Structure to design on (665 residues):
């Protein structure tokens, strides 16, 4: 059982999500409707994990995302799952350009319909892994020109990379693709070799891949200049 | 947006420089203004009377010979003669008015004489110039002649002592029957002459001012300027209203339909989970799963729609991120090379929709295999170029999208240039001042 704080400005969704999380066996400590309340609630109650919407009052821009970044700057280990209406990779990148990406998730809101997967992703985040929505990864993967090393990946390797980005570990990956764990490890090492990445553990691998995919400078959190090649 | 768009000054109400200069009478008398006015008026009647004679001759012979046919040509000549005269008068006006009066005629570079004549006869400006030509001799010429005559007499009076001294022992009579006895007594004449010169200076300035006003009314693009003013205003209103409506629709979809669909798919997901546990409800579980799948498709379509209306990433992260996002999804490979800071909202929105419009056209019509988007800010100007390697031949006039874009760009006092020779490449270029 996880102790959660939920931030979502739509009353309808707030009620629905609270019900879903409660049925999933978790405890919703507070369900709030603004980024400001979220920060206060987290400070007061110290939850196991935070679930938040991106767009929230007062400005209806990326207040939720900013609140989370602020919370993470105070407590880098606070697990956070961000729900978004937008596939836009800029939001995922903004979230992941922090000091650490351990325990971070970025999911499209559609995903809550797949209740089991959603609850699973929440669990992954709470345990300190990184979860990126497969749709976001798909967009990043879809448009890559020949110069990119990514073009060298086989379709199977792309599939493995996508699932890896969505937070699955080798065991779950093997089960999903009906292959052995050894085969997964082989694919993974092949991927990292082709992408010229250090094969370090877990989140850092996912992050390295994402940063590589999006072609963004991870050292620059205020993204003002983008070059896509 | 409307605040930042200065509208042109209506010609009739603009201040006349020479009249403004007269508000400080002493400084006015000591300045070059009286001399400029006199020169303007003198050249005016030297020009006005020959013009009057020519006009009278052309009109007279024209009317007399109208039956024969050649007279009609003379009448046409009289009317059209106002056009070069108008140009000359606009040029001459600069002696007394630094703010130039713009040419009211449409540009006809490269047109043949017949086309030129047809267009000019159809323009109101031509007829206003003809009216001005008719006024020039009898009204402005006559008044100018009066002022110059007054000036001449006044100057002679000023010089009386010198004249008296020079022609002595002959006598000078300022008032008939009474001879001026010597240079000292002639100083009275000098005083009167100076007063006359002053009057001539003021009268000349007033007359020149009146002629500036008349020239602005008759020789400038007066009616057209009013129309452009109103057009600009209504276009600002339209673009503003359009933008507000776009925002409202986006907000409604986002806060309404999208949230409802997410809640629906969530409820269906929960129902599916519950039904899965019951073997006898396997059919129902499959139906619920299908319903959830349909809700997901609807959500995806709605998301694409909302993004097309107004992309949130543009508001939050700016032009470069929003364009990169579009490039990622585009069916044709796109290279983005954008080096721009955050800009004002109207500029970012306009630039963004320029890129999406260009990309949409490239995907639909051009058969391009690659598109290149380049943008940078130099000084106060954003320059954005979208080039594809397609077959070209795009008609900028045909697409409603491009016309709408041109309007938006024009609102920001920028320009949109489309170059698309047959055989390609198609290049769309936008330049906008960053102040918006």
């Amino acid at each position: 059982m996880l102790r959660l704080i939920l931030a979502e400005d739509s009353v309808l969704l707030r009620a629905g999500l609270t019900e879903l999380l409660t049925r999933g066996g978790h405890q919703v400590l507070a369900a709030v409707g603004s980024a400001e309340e979220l920060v206060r609630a987290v400070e007061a109650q110290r939850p196991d994990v935070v679930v938040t919407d991106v767009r929230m009052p007062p400005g209806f821009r990326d207040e939720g995302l900013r609140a989370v970044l602020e919370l993470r700057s105070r407590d880098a280990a606070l697990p956070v799952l961000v729900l978004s209406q937008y596939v836009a990779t800029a939001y995922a990148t903004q979230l992941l350009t922090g000091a650490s990406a351990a325990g971070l998730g970025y999911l499209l809101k559609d995903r809550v319909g797949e209740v089991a997967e959603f609850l699973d992703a929440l669990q992954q985040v709470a345990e300190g892994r990184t979860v990126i929505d497969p749709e976001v990864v798909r967009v990043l993967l879809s448009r890559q020109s020949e110069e990119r090393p990514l073009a060298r990946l086989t379709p199977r390797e792309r599939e493995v990379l996508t699932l890896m980005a969505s937070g699955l570990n080798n065991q779950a990956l093997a089960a999903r693709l009906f292959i052995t764990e050894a085969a997964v490890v082989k694919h993974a090492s092949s991927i990292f070799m082709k992408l010229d990445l250090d094969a370090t553990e877990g989140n850092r691998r996912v992050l390295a891949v994402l940063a590589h995919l999006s072609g963004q400078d991870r050292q620059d959190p205020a993204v003002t200049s983008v070059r896509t090649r | 947006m409307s605040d930042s768009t200065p509208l042109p000054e209506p010609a009739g109400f603009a201040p006349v420089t020479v009249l403004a200069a007269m508000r400080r009478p002493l400084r006015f008398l000591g300045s070059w203004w009286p001399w400029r006015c006199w020169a303007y008026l003198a050249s005016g009647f030297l020009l006005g009377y020959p013009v009057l004679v020519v006009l009278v001759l052309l009109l007279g012979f024209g009317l007399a010979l109208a039956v024969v046919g050649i007279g009609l040509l003379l009448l046409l000549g009289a009317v059209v003669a106002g056009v070069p005269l108008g140009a000359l008068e606009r040029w001459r006006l600069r002696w007394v008015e630094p703010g130039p009066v713009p040419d009211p005629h449409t540009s006809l570079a490269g047109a043949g004489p017949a086309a030129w004549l047809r267009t000019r006869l159809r323009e109101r400006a031509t007829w206003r110039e003809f009216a001005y030509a008719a006024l020039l001799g009898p009204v402005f010429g006559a008044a100018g002649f009066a002022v110059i005559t007054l000036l001449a007499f006044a100057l002679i009076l000023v010089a009386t002592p010198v004249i008296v001294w020079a022609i002595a022992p002959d006598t000078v009579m300022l008032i008939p029957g009474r001879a001026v006895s010597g240079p000292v007594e002639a100083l009275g004449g000098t005083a009167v002459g100076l007063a006359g010169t002053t009057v001539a200076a003021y009268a000349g300035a007033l007359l020149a001012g009146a002629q500036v006003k008349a020239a602005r009314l008759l020789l400038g693009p007066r009616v057209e300027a009013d129309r452009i003013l109103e057009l600009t205003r209504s276009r600002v209103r339209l673009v503003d209203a359009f933008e507000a409506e776009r925002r409202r629709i986006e907000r409604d979809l986002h806060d309404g339909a999208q949230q409802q669909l997410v809640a629906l798919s969530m409820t269906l997901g929960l129902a599916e989970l519950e039904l899965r546990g019951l073997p006898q409800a396997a059919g129902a579980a499959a139906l619920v799963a299908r319903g959830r799948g349909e809700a997901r498709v609807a959500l995806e379509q709605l998301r694409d729609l909302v993004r097309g209306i107004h992309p949130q990433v543009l508001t939050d992260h700016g032009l470069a991120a929003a364009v990169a996002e579009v490039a990622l999804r585009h069916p044709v490979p796109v290279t983005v090379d954008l080096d721009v800071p955050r800009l004002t909202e109207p500029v970012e929105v306009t630039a963004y929709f320029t890129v999406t419009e260009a990309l949409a056209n490239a995907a639909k019509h051009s058969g391009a295999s690659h598109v290149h988007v380049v943008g940078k800010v130099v000084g106060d100007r954003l320059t954005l170029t979208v080039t594809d390697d397609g077959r070209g031949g795009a008609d900028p006039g045909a697409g409603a999208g491009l016309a709408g874009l041109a309007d938006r760009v024009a609102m920001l006092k920028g320009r949109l240039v489309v170059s698309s020779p047959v055989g390609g490449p198609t290049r769309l270029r936008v330049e906008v001042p960053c102040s918006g």
User: Anything to note?
Assistant: The first strand of chain A starts at residue 3 and ends at 7. The first helix of chain A runs from residue 11 to 23.
